[in-house]
Design brief:
The complex is a heterodimer. Chain A is mainly α. Chain A has eleven helices and two strands. Chain B has two domains: 206 residues, Rossmann fold (3-Layer(aba) Sandwich); 150 residues, Response regulator (Rossmann fold, 3-Layer(aba) Sandwich). Classes of the chains: A mainly alpha, B alpha/beta. Chain B: InterPro entries: Leu-bd, Peripla_BP_I.
């Protein structure tokens, strides 16, 4: 047994898992508050990558100015989408809303292709590139810094949900919309807020994912692997997204290195089926979740 | 009135006379970066032919539909184009489409087809009698790369890194066999799931294998740059190589630091290549002053080979059937492509088994020749 190798592989898996977890949080925020499964999250992530690219390579802004602007743009997009597309669908069947988000994904991919073309692009290098060694174990610097940022953002999201007024309102709305409404919580604003927070998170994740793997109009597929993560973790649990993300990242890495790359997805989806059989609502999900 | 009627008859006569090149072209979707270039390349070559009066006075008309790189859309485009026009030549966008449409192509028997796929499977004149590949198939590309490796460093160890797709898996099994024949050692085969972003675990695996050469296949850009960057950080000395679709100059430029020293096989010359005389490249540079991709060259050469097949069939006084045109295509021997390929080419079967190794020069920001032209079977 080569323990160093296993250790390195596990670290790489956890690093990738952190990115899954971050994008998973974006899924969860929206689902928790509004009961909408937002399949466009992968495309919003992609758009984040492109907006960042546009601001840095196109408008010539510095990276550190572009990151907050990208996140703001994500929030803005979330607000617009919620108000223009999702709010009017209130009360329609979940399948219809689900379909709206799929359509939104296609539209965003198409718009990006119109604006930036279909060629895959690389983001400018901004993550420090000195190799990191934990003892003797090598960790890819981009993955390590990406995971660090993801961890900070997730911690921020958890803290905001627990302590901020908006977070409390969101949790109250998630628990019982009617009661929240009668207690004077502006449920519409909570919906809007959750979309803004989720899309901002996704846009930020897009910058990190893009910095590692480059950007292309098809990178929204990333959102699909994240769907597995949140189903495993539980669609309405931020902690679930965190655990699910790390778990899937780790399983993928171990399966990839010891069984071969072709087993990565096999391992992931076997785990998904297993979890669904034991806990149909995900590891941390609540039972009333509506299945689509 | 009579004049009008006459005009209509004339127009119809002309329409009957013209030759149609149909195309299922991926102008959107995952393969659009190539489709756009291919589209332009075909158009430009046909413009050159038509400006000089066409083939024996017959103009060639290009009818293309966007497919989004989806097989069903490709087939729909094929049906639409072939039902509305008398199509003689066809450009298909994917391996899937080439295989799906093959029985229909044989049933119709009226056209020959080439496309964006270099799948080894298509390089079989018995199974695909009316199709051809305007370059080496993927296995032949590996063959060219490994012949180069065997010459540079006999007994070297190589690793194959490929995507878990039909495209990625295509050349792997036969290339392993060839490696043994050439005295090379396949140290590791690493397969990555399609669309994977993070490749750190795969790089760790590659480091354990310590190959002298690493060949990537089944990718366009990602995850190659991240792969190379991490490998270099770990102090790996391996040389990194790619196949046709990851070899476009603008694509390699995007790899940033990882691009330095990146090598690969290319059957065509690059847009900026001014070595020797190349009348066709001169014309291309005249028509389009800005850089054109290798996909453009692919479309351009495909149109050239197709029209050559038509010309040879008409010269022989034969009817333009699929079988006749394919037979004419196979008579192409030591054919001068005007500099698109650096050596005279022949199409003995379904492919054009020729290519050259290029290496990226970070100073000039260009892929530059690293070997002579390598012709398989010679």
């Amino acid at each position: 047994m080569d323990w160093l190798y296993i250790f390195e592989v596990s670290l790489a898996g956890l690093g990738a898992g952190a990115l899954y977890a971050l994008t998973g949080v974006a899924f969860v925020l929206i689902y928790k508050a509004t009961r909408v499964v937002n399949l466009a999250i992968g495309e919003i992530l992609m758009l984040g990558g492109y907006v960042f690219f546009g601001l840095v390579a196109g408008a010539g802004l510095s990276v550190w100015a572009a990151i907050p602007l990208t996140i703001l743009a994500g929030a803005g997009l979330g607000a617009v989408v919620e108000r223009a597309l999702i709010r009017p669908m209130l009360g329609e069947s979940p399948i219809s809303v689900f379909m709206v988000t799929i359509g939104l994904g296609s539209i965003l991919a198409g718009l990006v292709e119109l604006g930036w073309g279909a060629d895959p692009l690389r983001l400018p290098e901004f993550i420090p590139n000195t190799p990191i060694f934990l003892g003797e174990a090598y960790v890819a610097p981009k993955v390590a810094y990406g995971a660090l940022v993801a961890a900070l953002l997730i911690a921020g999201a958890l803290a905001a949900l627990r302590f901020s007024r908006g977070g409390v309102a969101l949790r109250a709305t998630a628990r019982d919309q009617g009661a929240a409404y009668s207690m004077g919580i502006d449920v519409g604003r909570v919906f809007s807020l959750s979309w803004m927070a989720a899309c901002a998170t996704a846009a930020g994740a897009g910058v990190i994912v893009g910095a590692i793997g480059g950007i292309s109009p098809t990178m929204g597929i990333f959102g699909l692997s994240v769907l597995v993560v949140v189903i495993v973790g539980g669609l309405d649990s931020v902690a679930g997204a965190l655990v699910g993300g790390l778990l899937i990242g780790l399983v993928e890495a171990l399966a990839g290195s010891f069984l071969g790359g072709e087993y990565k997805l096999l391992a992931t989806f076997s785990l998904l089926i297993l979890i669904l059989m034991i806990r149909p609502y995900g590891i941390f999900g609540t039972h009333e979740i509506e299945r689509l | 009135m009579a004049g009008l009627a006459l005009g209509a008859v004339e127009a119809r006569a002309q329409a009957q006379d013209e030759i149609v090149l149909g195309g299922s072209i991926p102008l959107t979707g995952v393969f659009a970066f190539a489709g756009v270039g291919i589209h332009a390349g075909i158009q430009d070559y046909l413009k050159l032919v038509n400006d000089e009066g066409g083939i024996k006075g017959r103009k060639i008309r290009y009818v293309a539909e966007d497919t989004g790189y989806k097989v069903d859309a490709s087939v729909a485009a094929f049906n639409k184009i072939t039902s509305q026009n008398k199509v003689t030549l066809y450009y298909g966008d994917s391996t899937g489409f080439a295989k799906t449409i093959n029985p229909e192509l044989e049933r119709k028997g009226t056209m020959i087809m080439a496309g964006a796929s270099f799948a080894s499977e298509l390089n079989d004149p018995k199974k695909f009698p009316l199709q051809f590949l305007p370059g080496p198939d993927y296995t032949e590309m590996f063959g060219i790369l490994m012949r180069y490796i065997a010459k540079e460093k006999p007994g070297a160890s190589v690793a194959f890194v490929y995507s878990d797709t039909e495209f990625g898996r295509d050349p792997i099994a036969p290339s392993e066999k060839l490696a043994t024949e050439l005295g090379l050692k396949v140290a590791e085969k690493i397969v990555t799931p399609p669309g994977s972003v993070d490749v750190s675990t795969e790089v760790l695996k590659l480091r354990r294998a310590r190959p002298d050469y690493t060949i990537f296949h089944g990718y366009v850009l990602a995850p190659i740059p991240e792969f190379i960057q991490q490998a270099k950080q770990m102090g790996m000395q391996s040389r990194f190589m790619g196949t046709f679709w990851s070899m476009d100059n603008s694509m390699v430029q995007q790899m940033g630091e990882a691009a330095d020293g990146f090598m690969g096989v290319m059957p065509y010359r690059y847009y900026y290549d001014k070595e020797g005389t190349s009348p066709m490249l001169d014309k291309i540079r005249q028509m389009r002053p800005e850089y054109q991709s290798t996909a453009y060259m692919q479309g351009f050469l495909t149109a050239m080979l197709m029209t050559e097949a038509v010309k040879r069939t008409l010269d022989a006084g034969k009817e333009l059937t699929g079988t006749n045109m394919k037979a004419s295509l196979n008579t192409i021997k030591d054919f001068d492509t005007g500099g698109i390929v650096g050596v005279p080419v022949s199409i003995p079967g379904n492919s054009l088994p020729v290519g050259r190794i290029y290496r990226f020069d970070a100073k000039q920001k260009q892929m530059l020749p690293a070997s002579d032209w390598i012709q398989l079977g010679k």
